[in-house]
């Protein structure tokens, strides 16, 4: 089964994404920030990560930089307050694509 990790500090976003991905028969795990995500990545080895850029404790850009060009899975960045340049930087660090919040769940 494919495992998806949702990393976002907003519980509502995590809930919506969890429901959508579970409906696609993905095994879903969640993390509230980059610190939790690091632990989950080590224990769950996800195939896909939906990663918010702006979070407390350890943000998405910091987490991406820690992968040093070799991300552990496919990463799609979620950003509400970021700019296109933030998304481009995230993709240079290994993200596959990005979604601007708010987004249409369909």
Structural description of this entry:
- This protein has helices at 11-23, 34-44, 60-66, 84-92; strands at 3-7, 27-31, 48-52, 74-79, 97-100.
- The protein has 106 residues and is of the alpha/beta class.
- The protein is 38% helix and 24% strand.
- The model has no long low-confidence stretch (mean pLDDT 92).
- The chain has 4 helices and 5 strands.
- The longest helix is centred in the first third of the chain and has 13 residues, at 11-23.
- The chain has a 5-stranded parallel sheet, with helices on both faces.
- Helix 1 links the parallel strand 1 (3-7) and strand 2 (27-31).
Quick recap of the structure?
The chain is α/β, with parallel strands linked by helices.
